[in-house]
Amino acid sequence: MRTTPSVAETKQRLERTGQQHLLAFWDSLDESRREALLEAIVQLPLEHISSMLSQAASLARPAAADIRPVRPYLRNMADASKYRAIGDDLVKRGKVAAFIVAGGQGTRLGWRGPKGTYPATPVAGKPLFRVFAEQIMAAERAYGVRIPWFVMTSEANHHETERFFDDNRWFGRPRGDTMLFAQGMVPSVSLDGQVLLEHAWQPALNPDGHGGSLKALRQAGAIDHMQASGIEHLCYFQVDNPNVHVIDPLFLGLHVAAPDSSAEMSSKCVLKRDVTEKVGVFVKAPRLTVLEYSDAPKEIAEARDASGEIVYGEGSIAIHIIGVEFIRKLTDHPLGSVLPWHRAIKKVPFVDPVSGQRTDPAEPNAIKLESFVFDALHEAESPIVLRTDRVEEFAPIKNASGEDSPATSKAIQVERAVRWLKEAGIPVPCHANGQPDCVVEISPLTARSPEDLRRTMQGKSITAGTEVLL
User: Fold this and answer.
1) Which residues pair with 153 in a beta bridge?
2) Residue 310's closest CA among 339, 344, 276?
3) 211 within 8 A of 370, measured Cβ to Cβ
4) Any idea what DSSP says for residue 116?
5) CB-based contacts of 384: which residues, under 8 Å, 6+ apart?
6) How far is CA 336 from CA 115, 191, 266, in A?
7) What would the pLDDT profile of 375-419 be if each residue is shown by its tens digit?
8) What mean pLDDT comes out for the span 248-269?
9) Could you say which of 149, 194, 348, 407 would form a disulfide bridge with 190 (CB–CB 3.0 to 4.6 Å)?
10) Parallel, antiparallel or unpaired: strands 265-271 and 384-387
11) Rg over CA atoms, the chain
């Protein structure tokens, strides 16, 4: 059992690391806030802050001359059925779990609450968490197996997320099949490396990025739980994409059996809409990596081949499969992960340790550190990429309006539903311009594919001008 260090021990540690100012207001704090401050300080990586900042500052961007395009696998490849069968068997044998990164709030959408509680679907307005839960339940029914679901929250939304799951009776799944745990935090530091104080009794902290999800899994005991349960592979996705295929047998089969895959980490991509789309792209530089749009040299970002196609167009959609043993290897590190730190210079309000005044800076005054999960690709022996269809699997909700908004997401969800109905041979009313004259939503519990619709909708049709929930 861990005990909180004494005040004297804490002072000595702060002196060794040059962070004595964190106790500047000690004499003015009551007992409960003193205890909170000591507990907060004990969790700070004070001995490593200098090296973390140095590593982030020296993080090299690949030169244009070192960047090459990737050759992804395609969903319609000749051996698709073989790999799909391999993935089916993997799920049936209980080797697969789902993992969602859901630490965000719905503030940018005008929604009060965790983003996973946002009503995302076009007819029923189902919250994102229910969409994913129904996908998992549908897969469990199809394969006759229980699929654990790991949900990473944040300090800001953990308790509210847990209440939401409770209020929704864990979406009809056994309580023990879902594990919620919070993302890690790292200190926000001044430009000269001093940990900022958010309050006199509390250091300023920020989430450690989606790369911190792997460390959070390890610290929550999820990796030990998975390995004790025989789970070998984790299907990673983020909370803002209702069209994600949470359990994809083709993707799983390629991950474990493609001749050039080490079964450590695999990723999905979609073709960029155009060269200006703000999405990271998969490249070889020389190892497989995601090149952020803000880091891409102009000649790379805008390159086209002789036929006019975008050369570097394999856009990352934050969908991965990660081997559980690979996660254990990545998290065997004093700081909990080998992933590199990235830095962002931001405005962070703070309490001045000299004057005691709270300051809202007019200019960026602090460094926020975070890690990215796709950096794990650098550590994988032979990662692969599967190109999927944008309408089929990518309908993100990121902005209140414009691109990647609730409106565009719902339109894509309807487009996919109509596509499935047409593939299943179900008549769908359309306007003269070809757009559907209906709004359709298909629950995963009704159909996981057009093939399922052929069985459930045989002899039925959709009426023009209606909203239909299947």
Assistant:
1) 182
2) 276
3) yes
4) G
5) 72, 73, 254, 255, 258, 260, 261, 266, 267
6) 27, 24, 22
7) 999 999 999 999 999 999 999 999 999 999 999 999 999 999 999
8) 98
9) 194
10) parallel
11) 24
